[in-house]
Design goal:
The protein is globular and about 70 Å long. Helix content is 46%, strand content 13%. The chain is of the alpha/beta class. The chain has a nine-stranded mixed beta sheet with strand order 3-2-1-4-5-7-6-8-11. The protein has a two-stranded antiparallel sheet with strand order 9-10. The termini are far apart.
Length: 510
């Protein structure tokens, strides 16, 4: 156990050091543009490592590889490994890293890989020869990425590269701020969604999949619980082509089949790429309060089983889109703005009422502020279940607004303990033999009748109430503590003013 923890810590250190080094090489390039350079190189290193590993086995010709031809593309296809031509192999690029034409060499390598691997056509970035990217810095990046495998066995390098890729996605999202949030769902939110749904087996669907983080976490969940990754098949759609490319690379670096992750610029409402799909799990983080969803063109769409959503807000269109794609017994978990819990605008109250009365709402989780990079709009998690077998006329409300901790002034994350508490509460509630009980200020199992009495409002705070104040709370002690804290701040302020005055006097005297 200690060894595993140490390895994880070592990897975290490497991720952090690599990010600092890569960011230093960025110079004046925007993070939004630079991410394609760095992530493209990490991806290239991954597929080259995987290719070289199999190439060595085929060349040795031992056991099942007896008589194999290491230059036969079909040998790699059979092992689900991308074929990398000689001019695109990492060793070739590294040997040319110090040349002033290295950018052109990398772009040509990307083109060569796409020609040899149809599933990657139109996916890989060709941005390395641009004038704003210093070629010396690019050579430094190649040297940096060359060290990612840390001397591990090549079989482990894909996992290391995958972790670094995900880490860099998150760091670039932080660096980009609002724009970054459009392609990245914070890891701790993803973990809550996946741990609540527990997608061990079946079809997993995300119709607004961003960079594919929800799919990656689903695969991780199955691995962590000793399931079979091949028992999961993923389906996705993304309307932003640049983000779709990131998703394809993110999934490929994990060895996840992304053939059913589709792109079209019309989006899931106007051009539903999986219109016949009935998924066992829907996991999604759709755009909040999207007013530009072409709702006026879809007034009579067959997906609106519970009412026609307003043209000015896509929230209830997304909810019904998710329900439309759920198989019998399927579950959905997704993020929505908190306003969707209470809205009465343009028929949304009627849709919410119909969904509640149909017994489809399983659980609502109120989230704390500052979890998302692209918005300060308060958010919530919804969990819907078709054909509930237990607590059919109840809804679990969890208020997690006091959970999480700040990692910087504007970003909050859930800790592992936070995630475990939220998900354990839900699964105990779902389990007829579970030891669930209401906790004031945190969770409450409310009947549909109670929800109806509150006009079908789904805000957890309306149900869980306020946490009990500890009986032994000492107001006098707390007041004394605050008074001392305030006095200390005044003292620090006085020292600062004195220092400023001294410095001003020195300047005037000189």
């Amino acid at each position: 156990m200690a060894k595993a923890a140490s390895t994880k810590d070592d990897l975290k250190t490497i991720e952090t050091q690599m990010w600092k080094a890569a960011d230093k090489l960025r110079k004046n390039i925007d993070a939004a543009e630079y991410k394609h350079v760095v992530l493209g190189l990490i991806f290239l290193k991954y597929i080259s490592d995987a290719f070289e590993d199999l190439y060595e086995k085929l060349s040795a010709g031992e056991g099942e590889y007896d008589g194999a031809d290491p230059e036969d593309k079909d040998e790699y296809k059979a092992e689900n490994v991308f074929f990398v031509p000689p001019s695109a192999r990492w060793s070739f690029l590294q040997s040319h890293a110090k040349q002033t034409t290295i950018g052109k060499t990398v772009d040509e390598a990307m083109d060569a890989i796409e020609r040899e691997n149809p599933s990657l056509r139109g996916v890989l970035p060709k941005v390395f020869a641009r004038g704003n990217l210093d070629q010396t810095n690019l050579g430094g990046l190649i040297d940096l990425v060359s060290n990612i495998a840390m001397g591990d066995a090549k079989a482990k390098s894909a996992d290391v590269l995958g972790r670094v890729f995900e880490y860099f996605l998150g760091e670039f999202a932080l660096a980009e701020g609002k724009k970054g949030g459009q392609f990245y769902t914070p890891e701790s939110v993803v973990k809550v969604l996946v741990d609540m749904l527990r997608p061990y087996k079946g079809r997993v669907f995300d119709p607004c999949c961003g960079s594919g983080g929800l799919f990656v976490q689903s695969e991780k969940f199955v691995e962590a619980h000793q399931g079979k990754i091949n028992d999961i098949s993923i389906y996705g759609q993304e309307s932003n082509q640049t983000t779709w490319r990131l998703a394809k690379m993110n999934l490929a670096i994990r060895g996840i089949d992304s053939s059913q992750v589709k792109w079209n610029n019309e989006g899931s409402f106007l051009n539903n790429a999986h219109k016949d799909l009935k998924a066992d799990y829907v996991i999604a983080n759709p755009p909040f309060n999207d007013s530009d969803w072409s709702g006026e063109l879809l007034r009579n769409d067959g997906r609106w089983k519970f009412g026609t959503p307003p043209t000015g807000n896509a929230n209830y269109a997304w909810i019904q889109h998710f329900l439309y794609h759920l198989a019998p017994g399927g579950k959905a978990g997704f993020v929505l703005s908190k306003g969707a819990l209470t809205t009465k605008s343009s028929g949304e109250w009627d849709i919410r009422k119909a969904i509640i009365e149909a017994g489809l709402v399983d659980c609502i989780v109120n989230l704390p502020a500052k979890l998302f990079l692209n918005t300060q709009i308060p958010a919530s998690l919804w969990f819907l279940t078709r054909e509930k077998t237990y607590r059919r006329k109840e809804i679990l409300f969890i208020d997690a607004r006091e959970h999480g901790h700040l990692i910087n002034r504007r970003t909050r994350v859930f800790s592992a303990e936070d995630i475990e508490e939220i998900t354990r509460t839900y699964h105990n509630w779902c389990d007829p033999k579970g030891d669930y009980e209401d906790v004031k200020g945190f969770c409450k199992s409310a009947s549909v009748e109670e929800v109806a009495a509150l006009d079908y409002v789904l805000t957890p705070g309306r149900y869980v109430g306020l946490a009990d104040v500890e009986d032994d709370f000492d107001f006098g002690e707390r007041f004394a503590s605050l008074k001392a804290e305030f006095a200390g701040q005044l003292e620090e302020e006085a020292k600062l003013n004195e220092l400023i005055a001294d410095n001003l006097a020195k300047v005037e005297s000189s």
